[in-house]
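We emphasize that the prediction below concerns an isolated chain of 317 residues; any contacts that depend on oligomerization or on bound cofactors are therefore not represented. The input was used exactly as deposited, without trimming of termini.
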Amino acid sequence: MHHRDQFIFHKLYKNKNLLPHTGNFSSCWKNCDGSFRKRRQDYTPTHKMEDQDDGTNTTSAVMAAFKSFQLELDTKHDKYERLVKLSRDITIESKRTIFLLHRVTSVPGVAEVLAESEVKLDGVRLKIKQIAEELRGQDLHQYHRAFTPGIQEYVEAISFQHFIKERALISLEEINKKLIFVKDNTKEAEGTSSESIQESREGAVYFQVTPTDYLLGIADLTGELMRMCINSVGNGDIDTPFQLSQFLRQIYDGFSYIGNTGPYEVSKKLYTLKQSLGKVEDACYTLRVRGSEIPTHMLADVFTTRAALIDPDEGIS
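Result of the prediction step, given as a C-alpha cell string:
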C-alpha cells in the first residue's frame, strides 16, 4: 500500500464520521481508494427537492407574470391563425372573380358578368370586414403578414373589374371607400368626400388597404391585362390590345418612378410587369405589321408562340 494512501485511510479511520456507512473496512477501502470524495452522500439527487419547491412557487409574482405572458402569446397566435384563414378565403374568392371577369372577352352580355362579379366581391368584402373586426384595437402591422396575400388579391380583382367598366385605374381612396361598413352590417358607406368618410367611420367597422398592398395588387393586375389582351385577339377584337398597351405603359412608367426606393416586394414585381408589357407590345406589333396576313382565328396562337420566345432572363433596363 502506498504511503500516501495509508495516511489518507488513517485519517478517515480516526474520524469515523467521514467513513461510508459500510459494514467492513475492505468495502470502505474500495470506496475510498483514490476517490473518497465521490461518496454516495455527495451525489444525492436534488430534483426531488426541486419538484417539491415547484409547488410552493406557483403563487409567486414571477410565475404569475409568466402565466400572463403565456396567455397573451396564445391569444396573439390564435388571432394570427384566424387572420391567415380569412386571407386564404379572400384569395380563393378573388381568384374566382378574376376568372369570371375574363369571360367578358368571349360573351356578349358584359353587364351580366360584371353584375355577377360584384356579388362575388361583396362576399369578399364581408371576409375583409371580419379581418377589420379582428384588428379592432390592435396594431395592424403586427398581423400584416397574415392577411396581406388576400388583400393584394382583392385589389387585383377589384382593379380588374374597374378597368373593364371604366378603362381606367382605380385609386386607393376608391378601394378604401368600399371597405367602410356601417352598424347594420348590410350596407356600406360610400361617401364622395373625406368629411363624409370620417363621419361614417364613427361607430362603424372599416379596413384600410395599405399603399404597399395597393401597389402589389396593381402590379399583379398587369398579368391579367396581358391575358385579356391575348384572349381579345383570339376572339377577333383588334382594338383592345392597343388600349391595353397604352394603359400598361402608363403603369410601368409609374412604377419606374418608384424604382428601388419603394418596398422590396414592389421592385421584385417590376420584372414581371415588364414581361407583361413586352408581350402586349409584341402582340400590337404583330397586329400592325402582319395583321392582314394572318387569319383572325390564328392570331392568338401566333401571339402565344411569340410570347414564349421572349427571353425570361432579360434584365430590367
